[in-house]
Amino acid sequence: MKPARLRPLGGAVAVALTAGLFAAPAALADTTGPRVTGTTASPQPRNLSAGTTTDACDTTTAPGWIGLTSGGPTLRADVASDTAGSLSAAFSVRDLTTGTTAFDGVGQAYGGTATTTVPGLADGHSYAWNARALQGAETSAASPDCHFKLDLAGPGAGVSSTDFPASGSGQTPLKYAGETGTFLLTGADPVPADGEASGIACYRYALNSTIGVGGGCAGAVVPGPDGTGTLALKVPQWGTNILTVEAVDNAGNVSQTATYTFYAPSNPNPPQALGDVDADGVPDILLPDTAGNLQIISAAAAAATPTSVVSANAAPDQTSWTGFQLAHRGWRGHAPMDDVLMHKPGSSALYFYNNTDSGAFSQSPVTVRRPFSCKDAAGITMTCPADFARDWSRADQLVALGSLNTQPNPSLLTVENGDLWLFPNPGLNSSLTTARKLTSGGSWTGYDLVAPGRDGAGDLALWARERATGALHAYAIPKLANGTFDFTALADPTAGVVATGFTVDAYPLLGSSGDGDGDTVPDLWAVTADRHLLTYRGLTNPKDLGVLA
Asked: Distance between CA 109 and CA 186 in Å, rounded?
């Protein structure tokens, strides 16, 4: 049996079906004329405390604030039409505080956008606005109402402190330079008689420098419910200091800068600890963050949060601390802060930071001249070998071994062409006096050096991680009766395995805070592949301080 043959539809039925398929519904037909497709205000209303921006074009979203602008806020309407002809937008602004019309105006559309600037709005008032698209004699429906509040008065700012009283107040400071003082930050956001104020969002500050441009609150002090802020600030340098503060309100208005001048006396009995960079009497760990800034982390800290952060532009190359090897364990006549040596493998320059500002790195580092005088492992003067470089480009690693005399002066240990070189200098400055070759044969290639500092008996040690195996070696450098040190244990880097498992994959970085006996702070620190900072008392039972920034 043959299947039934389909017949084409015709006549009125076909016409009706075709019309039903292709005719636009009534609701869509209205969109062919002028219409508003989007509305926004500039600057966009915001609330800095909440970190939000919104045009609040509905009935539930809390309106944001617009601050003082030149000529008033600008309103924008995106308009469209499916028919040819020029477009414009009619803007209407209502003052919700007074219940009156505040503005009506028309803006010509260019590229599908019409704008108008609204002058004369009142400080502290709340506003609603909408727009209609215009094309010839046609006018669209009004867009949904958008909302904002206006704060046209900048806040005020003030500073006070009992720890570091203002200069000329006649009060005696309660803290010394190098210690943390408390500063009370105060401000007021003027409230109009018939309106609201947005309120203080934060206090921005800078010590002995200039506050950055911009009105944001990143890194700023957030006030409490009473509008005041508490700033705990370490004052690194003794003498006259200047703290500048700006208050920022939720609308983004910034106060006039408040300048607070105070005197920080020098501590007559500063805490002293080799390995300490920021003058708090505790050795420190120096590590770059992911943005290239330098983090100073106390070795006694319970978390990886730095006590201070040095900007990336303070690095020797003025771009980033990443890639620099940092060595510190001793100072040059300005206790208690370690000086810092800095070198990037392959670079010809070794840099020295004369740390007189508690690790603020406010001064530029100087380059260290390479010595031209050499000694052998026994300390006897010899002719420098042919592969002894005139610059620091062959120094693959460096660590601060610790003091080699009764003074807390740093000494430097490097790996060059696979051998260990010692640069002792009781008065380290912009030049080193001698270079002492401690090993021969190039057998130290493939080891990461760690210098734990002196132990309780005054002896030194060197540790090294064998990269190929993850084994950790310890080499004793005992102090002899004549006050010198015996370096013979360094002849064989394969000896003295004290721990295993410190593989490069698991622990890309290893270091020491410099407390050789482990009594006060951990001996060893490590950074894991996922950037967790671990500290060890001895060589076992690591404490996880959390993820580094």
From this structure: 46
Task: Please say whether the beta carbons of 274 and 533 come within 8 A.
Answer: no
| Kind plus residue range of the DSSP H or E element containing 18 | helix 11-22
d(CA 355, CA 361): 7
- Taking only the tens place, the pLDDT of each residue in 291-342 is 999 999 998 899 999 988 999 999 999 999 999 999 998 877 666 788 999 9
Place of tokens 């530029």: 364
Distance CA 154, CA 74 (A): 20
Q: Could you tell me whether strands 146-150 and 64-66 are parallel, antiparallel, or unpaired per DSSP bridges?
A: parallel
Distance, CA of 430 to CA of 353 (rounded, Å): 10
Calculate Rg over the CA atoms of the chain. 35
Residue with tokens 């708090």: 280
- Cα distances (Å, whole numbers) of residue 511 to 285, 393, 483, 507, 547: 8, 22, 27, 11, 17
Residue 64 CA to residue 86 CA, distance in Å, equals 33
pLDDT digits (tens, 9 = 90+) for 142-194: 999 999 999 999 899 999 999 999 999 999 999 998 889 999 999 989 999 99
Question: How many residues are listed for the chain in this entry?
Answer: 549
DSSP per residue, 24-88: PPHHHHGGGS-EEEEEEEESPPEETTTTEE----SSSSPPEEE---SSS-EEEEEEE-SSSS--E
Residues 450/465, Cβ–Cβ less than 8 Å: yes
User: How many Cβ atoms from other residues are within 10 Å of residue 495's Cβ?
Assistant: 11
With a cut of 50, list the residues of the chain below it in pLDDT: 1-30, 516-518
- Which helix (H) or strand (E) segment holds residue 249: the answer is strand 239-249
| Claim: this prediction has a pTM higher than 0.85 | no
List strands edge to edge, sheet with 294-298. Answer: 284-288, 294-298, 308-310
Task: Spell out a b/e string for 18-37, using b for 16 or more CB atoms within 10 Å of the CB, else e.
Answer: eeeeeeeeeeeeeeebbbbe
- Measured between alpha carbons, how far is 27 from 310 in angstroms, rounded to an integer? 62
Element (H, E) at 95: strand 88-95
